[in-house]
Amino acid sequence: MSGGWQNASKAALAFLVLFLAWQYVAPWARVPNYVLPVPTAIAQRFWQTRAVQLEHLGQTASTTLLGLAAALLVGVLLAMLVVYARSLRAVVLPVLAAFNSIPKIAIAPLMVMWFGLDTAPKIVLAFLLALFPIFVNSVTGLGEIEPDLLDLSRLLGGNAWRIFLKVRLWHAAPHIADALKVAFPMALVGSVVGEFISGNTGAGYLVMSGQMTLDTPLVFAALLSITALAVAGIGAVGLFERVFLSWRPSMRSR
Amino acid sequence: MLPAARPLTPLKPAELPSGSAERAGLAVEVRNVRKDFGATTALADLSFDVRPHQFVSIVGPSGCGKSTALRIIAGLLRATAGAVSVWGQAVTSPLGDAGMVFQSPVLLPWRSVIDNVLFACEMRGERAERYRERARELVELAGLQGFENHYPHELSGGMQQRVSICRALLLHPRLLLMDEPFGALDVMTRERMGFELLRLCDLGEYTVLFVTHSISEAVLLSDAIVVMRGHGDAAKPHMLEIDLPRPRTLATMRDSRFVEFAAAVREEFELGRAR
């Protein structure tokens, strides 16, 4: 525990040094405020726009979570298809792998053409970016079960449904939690990029409007909001792990 | 360190294996079983019987097909030729009411000791609450009292294996299949576990089919031993009846007849090799 505090205080100290350097070195080096605003200027702008920030961030959070939820549902269902219908594995895996090699950001304009200017394209982008990590980890989690355990479950009279519910799903839970830690920031990227290219809501829109008016402190303030959301999302998954997955090996040393 | 042996709470008649009394025939019947994996023959011609309430070991060197034989009897593998029946019924799919213990304990890391034991009845589709008391008794009998709510990673290898034996015994299976259950344990633990297994089995009158490569373990535990001699077509086994008195204890191992039986099993191996 003392080691944890020590590490935390070291990290805090590092950030403090970084911010102090930023605050005093940037003006000294004559970096103008519209290029790199000092931390106090960003904090001030953040506080001034807090109500607007919150409103737009709420919009971004909702499209991110909707996209993520859809990715979770579809990813796990696709993984089940691959795990249970082994013959489909040869079809689904290459298609998804090929699909994954398309840079999803590049198809953002297409999403706007297909789904309009409202929230739909943002949700779709969030979904597309989050889908692959969830799918891949679900295949591992649901499929790669010790053969002896499956044999044992069958010998005890377990049918496919009970084995799914009491073995596969539990085995997959930590894998899916790991996937969510990657997928949440990915979904957030999808939402924000969607907001960059269309619409007038969301933290991504706020960044763009800061850019249009050369309000660099506002750009930084909006970035701060987006980062806070990413940290909160990953933290929520971590909390879930601590509460419900405390048995998993990586949790044991904590 | 172990609590005095006392009988388990008897199962209600409805929970007892149905019709075991009238089917007084053989527990396991293996007839001319052959198993090929591609061009490799794992079992050439295996035949033996297990009578009800017998403790039968299959002994043989690594790769002689003894685990394959057990998996065929369990219905996890299909024989290339020959027939297996368990309690008079031909085995065509996984048994569904057999207790099984593997070399590794295969516990569920997300379940506590007691919930791992109760996994057995949940797979059968029964409510765990009905069996909680029996699970607790089994765990206590296995010397795990105080560890009911521990997770598998908090237990030693020997303790984990005891949990998996409790899980196998929970539903009072008519046939207990064990595939080198003590193979991963150190020699001292292994001996003690053998005696504990006998004690647990005596309480329940189980029929046990036990795979091992240890001659002394087989002689110590069994009523009969199937000696499998070696690879492929030399797998024709020989069956030895071990009529050492029960209960078997550490003193049994110093009995001159124990030594004779062990020598007889070893001789079977040598005969196989000479051929």
Word description of this protein:
The complex is a heterodimer of chains A (254) and B (275). Chain A is mainly alpha-helical and 254 residues long. Chain A has 2 domains: 31 residues; 217 residues, MetI-like (MetI-like fold), CATH 1.10.3720. Helices cover 81% and strands 0% of the residues of chain A. Chain A contains 10 helices and no strands. In chain A, helix 3 packs antiparallel against helix 8. Chain A is globular. Chain A starts with a helix and ends in a 10-residue tail after the last helix. In chain A, 35% of the residues are buried. In chain B, the strands form 2 sheets. Chain B has a 6-stranded mixed sheet with strand order 6-7-8-3-9-10, sandwiched between helices. In chain B, strands 2-1-4-5 form a 4-stranded antiparallel sheet, with helices on one face. In chain B, a hairpin with a 2-residue loop joins strand 1 and strand 2. In chain B, helix 2 packs across helix 3, helix 2 runs parallel beside helix 4 and helix 6 packs across helix 7. The N and C termini of chain B lie far apart (48 Å). Classes of the chains: A mainly alpha (254), B alpha/beta (275). Chains A and B meet through helix 7 and helix 8 of A and helix 2 of B.
